[in-house]
Amino acid sequence: MSNVDPKLDRLLRSAVQGGDDHSPAAPFGFDTRVVALWRVSRIGNGNGLARLVRRVAFAAMTLIVIASAAALYEANQERDADEAYGNEFAIADSAIQSEVFR
Amino acid sequence: MIFIKMFQKLPQFSGKVPLEHWVSRIAVNTCLNQIQSEKVRPEIRHADLSEDEVAVIENLAVSSDELAPDKRFASRQLVEHLLKALKPAERLVIDLLYLQGRTVAEIKKVTGWSAALVKVRAFRARQKMKQQLERISAEEN
User: Fold this and answer.
1) From A36, A73, A96, B67, which residue has the greatest number of CB atoms within 10 Å?
2) CB B104 within 8 A of CB B115
3) What is the model's pTM?
4) Looking at this predicted complex, what is its ipTM?
5) Residue A46: pLDDT over 80
6) Chain B residues contacting A, CB < 8 Å?
């Protein structure tokens, strides 16, 4: 470093400290432009990302409907089974009572 | 830089090709453009510099004291301008040696160059930066 031109040496030393002081920032209006582009692309529905999100949402909805229908069906099956058992017990009970009274 | 370009070009994506192919095409084009711009290396003009950068050059010319703390960012910007006019290898050696404060031995290890080559490249880069500074100062006067 000793054979560096004095002016250049001072400039480089100051630049080293300047690099630590300043944190790089996005250019003016960058975030606004990115958000605007994203909105436009969302309205236009022209990109693969929006299509993918739509497909995933549709698949999730279908899955929810199927799962709900299956759960409802299962609940109905259990209720019928309970009712069937209830009738059998009533018949058996009445048969026993009639035998006892006879 | 590639992701920024992707965001900017998003409305141009037709959907006819897979998204991955489109992104990789943008990446390849961005890299090719960068290599092309590395080859050009335009000279710095006085008019390209900000007021603060010009003030730094004036300060360097008239005084031998250290630059004021408020001039640090401007001097960094000026050095960035000067580096742009160098070859990539020279830019790398200046960055490692002076801006990152690495030793010649460390640079030798990182780059795989010999110690003599590191010193020669640093010397040539310094000479070019010095000439650029002198040319800008002369332009100013």
Assistant:
1) B67
2) yes
3) 0.52
4) 0.70
5) no
6) 7-8, 10-11, 13-15, 18-19, 56, 60-61, 64, 66-67, 69, 71-79, 97-99, 101, 123, 126, 129-130, 133
